[in-house]
Design a protein that fits this description.
The complex is a heterodimer of chains A (about 700) and B (about 210). Chain A is an all-alpha fold and about 700 residues long. Chain A is built from 20 helices and two strands. Chain B is mostly helical and about 210 residues long. In chain B, α4 packs antiparallel against α5, α5 packs antiparallel against α6 and α6 runs antiparallel to α7. The chains are: A mainly alpha (about 700), B mainly alpha (about 210).
Chain lengths: ~700, ~210
């Protein structure tokens, strides 16, 4: 550990750490790209600020969004974070594919160090700041409505989790402009990431951004699990919950158990780097295998944290757009639970090659293959749900079907990799890269896009443009196959991951094909943005005020779109599975309730944004060794918590008369709406009242 | 009927304060879940210590060289009695209408906890004087991390206790304050259990084996 020669108010931060200064001093292509990325970030923030000022949006932003503790708004903010981070990480992916496609016997445009930062940020962002916020946001928005609750159990804690995650994301973004990010990959294996081999701020950025978000996720898990166990509407027994709630529950349980190893691993790495401890160093009793075990003890359940909610989305989408109740409900629940349990028994397959005996490897290989069994059960259940259904090929449904096909291919390569001898041959090759992209893109990303298409009308009150959605779908699908199938081939040809330059000319064609595929994937993302803009402009023809545009089956479709702050004017009584379909079939949907009560909702709070800002300051100060700011950030965070505990007026009452007036007005509006047959789902005739077939 | 179905593990306020009891259930349940997550954290630290305590000594001091068993025993007694006094505070919270009993037991608990922390800091100080610093070996890194994480938890508990004493004065025995004290009690007892494990696996095993 180096001792600073002189005290500085800005710690180790110097002007040379600003990326624009580096570009100016060393004008090569790689630095230009870095400088351009930083400029995009800065200019983008200036444009957003200017637009907010122009449209006088600051007040709305602050009072309606940033200080809100409403689970729906928190959920939407999570998904906004996910989209912003997706934009960055997908561009990084394209850039890496470009570099590799031109770097055959040629250095290409990126320096090895810059390339290392790209694969590190790409992986870290996609897992921690794209996929995690996306699933958390989705669960936040949907799950409480599906179980007939007015909010999560701890609304303020929910907002704090959001802000901790956003603070982590902000740190990764700041690293684009101030200093460098880690080059140690998203797993950050020591001893490479130790102070000896990676001096400087890069790994510290990784450590603190990941630590913040992992604490946020632990709290989210506690919150969601408590909500599902304690906040369900009367009659909503566990086995009447929609499958999305089951998968949310399993994900929450995994978060509670799996985030701690990550938090501990990053803190130990930090102690090694900042204070000269010997957890993972080469000398004095350190043992990097402890890191590998801790990281994957988190890392493998993490895969299921991400994919289970997507499985829940597919269950809802396939069932709704097949017009049938889900096939094999109980088997799906049992399969979900089995996957959650098994996910803790397979972590070692991430490092078969790192020196365990053959018997240990064999046990973990078999455990890994076992996970294929419950997953296979799920695939059959989804297929059988579609059998004899009246299938409507909406965008959400197309993504779900493409998931089924593509995920099975990815699963097969997973079973191949679960054989330790095979794994030795392709370990750390592009075959592995192809495999996990083959699981995570269809599994998580397609699931989240499907959920976004499916529930967007519920959240914003108008449908998305199907035509653009379908165009985007084809780009994502073809783009996926064209990008990643060549990587399987390359992996078998011996191409290793994270390589900045190649010396085998036979790789060239495959790498170029893969780059074209990456461009297609990027087009898919752009088309999603286009779809959003087009839909916003046409929102008046696309409105679904009655709230049920897809003939939905679960309770979230029974209220207006967008739903009132309190979700349900009167908490519904549930008598079975597919609660809303039952109400519609019994003619009880949209009936006026007998009586209304006052509703208590939580007040907005400034605490969560204060903690978020404190966390950014704390993280940034730790990265740059600005100790006074570390103290200030820490005091801000805990000061806010303690100050909050003295606030007694945290709730606000919405009087029954107001609830009645709003709800009766909406019911009147629904009763006047014409019902929509399913054939006209994608026309302006669909105002959100589904035709009920006897 | 309703009260029966809302029972949660631990001390229930049911028979003396029904309103607070109704509010308690999701909050206390959520806190149990949080404690579970926290215990996973300690489990990881124990596992790390187990893997490094013998194999990570790197020629440096071993547990027998640096552990002061009598001191650790006194610390154990301090923390165990602080759990009893917090138990008395919980009973006062439930059955005594006045603030005095509650405050008395809380202050006593605080003193015992502070005594524990003081002893622990003294132990650490003596160890560093002997050259047994965390930078010396993997074993010592793991030892300090595990024991200090517990110590930081106890310190956080002490800060929490101060806040609660202030709140008892400023806010009185409101439902929120009662629920917070119930959660603090659970937190405190959990730290006691963790310490029993530390005393057993770190100190006793370390010196005896």
């Amino acid at each position: 550990m180096t001792v600073e020669s002189s005290f500085s108010l800005l710690g180790t931060l110097t002007p040379q750490d600003i990326s624009f200064v580096q570009t100016f001093e060393n004008p090569v292509m790689s630095e230009f790209i870095d400088g351009a990325a930083g400029s995009v970030l800065v200019i983008g923030m200036i444009i957003v600020a200017a637009l907010l000022t122009y449209y006088r949006g600051w007040k709305t932003l602050w009072f309606d969004w940033l200080t809100s503790v409403d689970h729906k708004k928190v959920g939407i903010m999570y998904i906004v974070v996910a989209f912003v981070m997706l934009a960055r990480a997908i561009i990084e992916g394209v850039l890496m594919r470009y570099q590799q496609s031109i770097a055959v016997n040629d250095p290409g445009v990126l320096t090895p160090d810059h390339f290392g930062q790209l694969f590190s940020t790409h992986g870290s962002i996609m897992i921690f700041f794209m996929a995690m916020p996306f699933i958390t946001g989705m669960i936040n928005y949907i799950m409480p409505q599906q179980i007939g609750a007015r909010d999560v159990s701890f609304p303020l804690l929910n907002a704090i989790s959001l802000w901790l995650t956003a603070a982590g994301a902000a740190l990764v973004m700041i690293s684009l402009v101030v200093g460098k990010f880690s080059t140690g990959g998203w797993t950050a294996y020591p001893p490479y990431t130790g102070i000896e081999f990676s001096p400087g701020e890069g790994v510290d950025y990784w450590i603190w951004s990941i630590s913040l978000t992992s604490i946020g996720s632990t709290l989210t898990g506690v919150n969601f699990a408590t909500t599902i166990y304690k906040n369900r509407a009367p009659g909503m027994t566990l086995f009447r919950m929609p499958l999305f709630c089951w998968t949310s529950l399993c994900t929450s349980v995994l978060m509670i158990f799996a985030m701690a190893p990550l938090t501990i691993a990053t803190l130990m790495l930090a102690l090694d780097r900042y204070a000269g401890f010997h957890f993972f160093t080469n000398d004095l009793g350190g043992n990097m295998m402890n890191y590998a075990n801790l990281f994957w003890l988190f890392g493998h359940p993490e895969v299921y944290i991400l994919i289970l909610p997507a499985f829940g989305v597919f269950s809802e989408v396939i069932s709704t757009f097949s017009g049938k109740t889900i096939y094999g409900y109980k088997s799906l629940v049992v399969a979900t639970m089995s996957i959650a349990v098994l996910s803790f028994t397979v972590w070692l397959h991430h490092f078969f090659t790192m020196g365990q005996g053959a018997n240990v490897n064999a046990i973990f290989g078999i455990a890994t293959m076992l996970i294929g069994v419950p997953t296979g059960v799920k695939v059959y259940d989804w297929l059988l749900t579609m059998v004899r259904g009246r299938i409507r090929l909406t965008t959400a449904m197309l993504f779900s079907i493409m998931f089924l096909v593509t995920f099975v291919i990815g699963g097969l390569t997973g079973v191949i990799l679960a054989n330790p001898p095979v794994d030795f041959a392709v370990h750390n090759s592009l075959f592995l890269v192809a495999h996990f992209h083959n699981m995570v893109i269809p599994g998580v990303l397609f699931g989240m896009i499907a959920g976004y298409q499916f529930w967007f009308p519920k959240a914003f009150g108008f449908r998305l443009a199907e035509r653009w959605g379908k165009a985007s779908f084809w780009c994502w699908s073809f783009g996926f196959y064209l990008t990643f199938m060549p990587l399987y081939v390359l992996g078998l040809m011996g191409a290793m991951r994270r390589t900045v330059e190649w010396f085998r000319p036979e790789y060239l064609g495959w790498l170029q094909a893969s780059f074209v595929g990456a461009l297609l994937l990027f087009s898919g993302f752009i088309l999603l943005i286009v779809q959003l803009i087009v839909s916003v402009r046409q929102r008046d023809q696309r409105r679904v005020p009655a709230g049920d545009p897809w003939d939905g089956r679960s309770l979230e479709w029974s209220n207006s779109a967008p739903p009132p702050e309190y979700n349900f004017a009167v908490i519904p009584e549930v008598s079975g599975q597919d609660a809303f379909t039952r109400l519609k079939e019994q003619g009880k949907a949209y009936a006026s309730p007998a009586a209304y009560d006052d509703i208590i909702v939580p007040k907005n709070s400034i605490v969560a944004p204060v903690i978020g800002v404190g966390a950014i300051a704390l993280g940034f100060a730790l990265v740059w060794h600005i100790w006074w700011l570390v103290a200030l950030g820490f005091v801000t965070i805990w000061g806010a918590v303690i100050a909050r505990s003295f606030v007694t007026e945290t709730e606000r009452v919405i009087p029954a008369s107001e609830v009645r007036a709003d709800h009766e007005a909406w019911l009147q509006q629904v009763r006047e709406c014409a019902t929509t047959p399913r054939e006209q789902e994608d026309t302006s005739a669909n105002v959100g009242r589904a035709e009920v077939l006897a | 009927m309703k009260r029966q179905s809302l029972l949660h593990p631990g001390l229930n306020l049911g028979s003396t304060d029904e309103y607070s009891h109704d509010e308690a259930e999701p909050v206390i349940f959520g806190f149990w879940v949080f404690l579970m997550a926290d215990l996973v954290l300690f489990a990881i630290l124990f596992a790390t210590y187990a893997s490094m305590s013998v194999q990570g000594q790197a020629g440096g001091p071993s547990p027998t060289d640096v552990f002061d068993l009598p001191s650790a025993f006194i610390e154990t007694m301090l923390l165990l009695s602080s759990s009893i006094t917090f138990g008395m505070a919980s009973l006062a919270l439930k059955y005594k209408a006045d603030r005095l009993h509650l405050v008395f037991w809380l202050v006593l608990t605080f003193c015992l906890g502070a005594g524990f922390i003081g002893m622990e800091v003294r132990d650490f100080w003596i160890m560093t004087q002997q050259g047994a610093v965390p930078q010396r070996s993997g074993f010592l890194s793991a030892f300090y991390m595990l024991v200090a994480t517990h110590g930081i938890h106890v310190t956080a508990g002490l800060c929490w206790m101060i806040v609660m004493l202030v709140q008892l004065r400023v806010l009185g025995r409101t439902t929120e304050v009662k629920l917070r004290l119930m959660r603090l009690a659970l937190f405190w007892h959990m730290l006691d259990i963790v310490w029993v494990c530390i005393f057993t696996f770190v100190y006793l095993f370390g010196v005896a084996l």
